[in-house]
Amino acid sequence: MTDTDRRPVDPVDVVVLGLGAGGEHAARKLAEAGLRVVAVERDLVGGECPFYGCTPSKLMIHAAHEGRGLGRAATRIREANHDWSDESHAGPLEEAGVRIVRGHGRLAGQGRVEVAGTTYDARLGVLLDTGTEPTVPPVDGLAGTPYWTNREVMREVEAPESMVVLGGGPIGCELAQAFARFGTRVTLVEAEDRLLGPEEPEAAEVVTRVLRAEGVDVRVGSELSRVEHDGGFVLEVGGEVLSAERLLVAVGRTPNLADIGLETVGLSPDADHLTTDEWLRAGERLWAVGDITGRGAFTHVSLYQAKVAVRDLLGQGGSGADYRAVSRVTFTDPEVGAVGLTEAQARDAGLTVAVGRADIPQAARGWINEAEGIVKVVADRDRGVLVGGTVVAPYGGEVVGLLSAAVHAAIPVETLRGMHYAYPTFHRAIAAALSDL
Ligand SMILES: Cc1cc2nc3c(=O)[nH]c(=O)nc-3n(C[C@H](O)[C@H](O)[C@H](O)COP(=O)(O)OP(=O)(O)OC[C@H]3O[C@@H](n4cnc5c(N)ncnc54)[C@H](O)[C@@H]3O)c2cc1C
Ligand SMILES: NC(=O)c1ccc[n+]([C@@H]2O[C@H](COP(=O)([O-])OP(=O)(O)OC[C@H]3O[C@@H](n4cnc5c(N)ncnc54)[C@H](O)[C@@H]3O)[C@@H](O)[C@H]2O)c1
C-alpha cells in the first residue's frame, strides 16, 4: 500500500476543479440542486476575469475613454474586486452549500481529485475549469526582468512614461490604447503581419490606423529578440534598440493542463486543450469548461458551457453546446464586435461565400460622429443566411448583437433586408452591408 492509498477518501457527488467563471457557476447550481459539491481553488475564487482580466481592463478602458487617469481606474478596480479579495465570490458559493477547498488540485484517477492530502471521490464526476496563465515567450534575457503580464498591470496606480506592449491580440490592443490615452508613450510589437490575427483583416486595418493616429507606435511583423533591464528596459526589436520604462507581455495564454493529473485518466498533460463533446464531456465522469476547451477564451463561453454541463450532470437534457454563433468583442475604441465565421474561415469550411461591406464614415451616424469603422457580413449563398459578421464602430460590441441573433437563429438574409433600421444609428450600416451582398 502506498502513502496515497492511505490518505482519507471523502465521498461527494461532484468535484469542481478550478473556479473560473464556469466552474463558479456550475458549483453553485449543482449545490443549489442538492448535490454535495467540493470546489477546489488555489488562488482567487472567480478566476482571471474579475481580478486580472475583463473587469479591470474594461475599467481602465472606460477611464481612458472618459479622459480620466489610471488613478481613477485603479480606485474603481479596487472597489470592484475588494482589493483582490474573493469573499464576494466565495461567500455565495458557501451559502449555496459548496465546500470550498483551497489548494492545488490534481485528478487521481477516474472521478477522483486529490488536494491538500485528501482525495475526494466524486460519485457523478469531476468538472474541470482550470483556465490559463499568461504565456511568457523564450526571449533572450526576458526571464528575471520585472516585465508585466496582465496580472501585474491591473495593480498599477500610475501610468509609466513609456511602455512596450508585446503582442497585438485583444489584450495588447486594448491596453496599448488605454495607456496611450493615459499619457504613456506606447510601442506595440506584433510578430505576425497584422494586429488581431483571428479577426477580419478589415477590422485590424481600422484598429491599426486608429492606434497610430493616437500616437501608438505599431510595429507589425516585428520580433523582440533580446531584453535587458537596468532601471529601465532596453529591448532589441527587429534589429533596432528601444528603451522603455515598462514592458507588458501579452502574447497569448497557456492552459493549466500540465499539472492536473490528466495522465491518471488516460489524457495527455501536454495537450493544448481538452476535446469535449456537445455536453462538455472530456472523458468518463469528466467534464471540462472554459478556456481549456479551446472553443473561445471568453468569459461568456465558459459560462455558456457550464450551463450545458450542469444540465448534463443533473440529467435535465435540452440542447448540447452549439458554437456557430460565438460572439466576441475587442474593447478598443472603436470596438471590434464579431460573431461566427470570418470570410476566411467560411471559405476554409467549403461554403459558397458572399461578402457585404459598409464603411461607418459613409453611414449618417458615422459621419455625424466622425467615427471610424466598418461592417462586414459573411453569408452562405446556398442557404441564404449569414454565418458571420463584424462591426467595427463606436459600441461595435453592442451593434453586433443584431448579427449574433441573425447567425444564431439562421434568419434568412431576405428577412434581414426587409427589417426597419432606425435612422441615424450605427446599426443602420448593417442594412448597407446586406445590400452589398
Ligand atoms: C486582460 C484580459 C482581459 C480579458 N477580457 C475579456 C473580456 O473583455 N471578455 C471576455 O469574455 N473575456 C475576456 N478575457 C478572457 C477571460 O478572462 C477568460 O476567458 C475567463 O476568465 C474564463 O476563464 P476560465 O473559466 O477558463 O477560467 P479562469 O478565469 O482562467 O480561472 C481558472 C481558475 O482555476 C484555478 N486553477 C487552475 N489550476 C488549478 C488547480 N490545479 N487547482 C486549483 N485551482 C486551479 C486558477 O487559480 C483560476 O482561478 C480576458 C482575459 C484577460 C487576461
Ligand atoms: N475583449 C475580450 O474579449 C478579450 C480581451 C483580452 C483577452 N481576451 C482573451 O484572452 C486571450 C488572450 O489574449 P492575448 O491578447 O494575450 O492573446 P492572443 O493569443 O489573442 O494574441 C497574442 C498576440 O501576440 C502575438 N505574439 C505571439 N508571440 C509573440 C512574440 N514573441 N512577439 C510579438 N508578438 C507575439 C500573436 O501573434 C498574437 O497576435 C484571447 O485569445 C482572448 O480570447 C479577450
TrEMBL record:
Keywords annotated in UniProt: FAD, Flavoprotein, Oxidoreductase
EC class (word): oxidoreductase
High-level lineage: Bacteria, Bacillati, Actinomycetota, Actinomycetes, Propionibacteriales
Domain FAD/NAD(P)-binding: 13-306
Protein family: Belongs to the class-I pyridine nucleotide-disulfide oxidoreductase family.
Molecular functions per Gene Ontology: oxidoreductase activity
Protein's recorded name: Dihydrolipoyl dehydrogenase family protein
Cofactor requirement: FAD
Enzyme Commission number(s) from the entry: 1.-.-.-
Pfam families recorded: Pyr_redox_2 (PF07992), Pyr_redox_dim (PF02852)
Organism of this sequence: Nocardioides hankookensis
